[in-house]
Design a protein that fits this description.
- This protein has a single domain, classed as Alpha-Beta Plaits.
- Helices cover 24% and strands 39% of the residues.
- The chain is built from two helices and five strands.
Length: 98
């Protein structure tokens, strides 16, 4: 898919449940790379994982489905989603933040 042909948007996800210490951020990065999304994943001090993703709406919808599933060993209880502005600092790759 070429970048010029797909309108990009951004979304922020807050994933709750057993999602820290189970490879969730690395799972999110792997799925994001498969879907050619940019952004980041990071652990929050309250036990959730925050994920910010940039890409076409269809890819973000597929990403959300995978976030609900999570990696083996995780137990996702909810994924809250909100629209976000595109932040050019995170527009090139998907990273794991500390």
């Amino acid at each position: 898919m070429n970048e010029a042909g797909a309108s990009r948007q951004a979304a922020r996800y807050f994933v709750s449940g057993l999602v820290q210490g189970v490879g969730y951020r690395f799972f999110a990065r792997q799925i994001a790379e498969q879907l050619r999304l940019a952004g980041f994943a990071k652990n929050l001090s309250d036990g959730r994982v925050e994920i910010y993703a940039i890409g076409p709406a269809e890819s973000l919808a597929a990403f959300r489905e995978e976030l609900n599933r999570g990696p083996e060993g995780s137990m996702v209880s909810s994924v809250a989603e909100e629209d976000a502005a595109i932040d050019s600092r995170f527009a090139k790759i998907f990273s794991i933040e500390r």
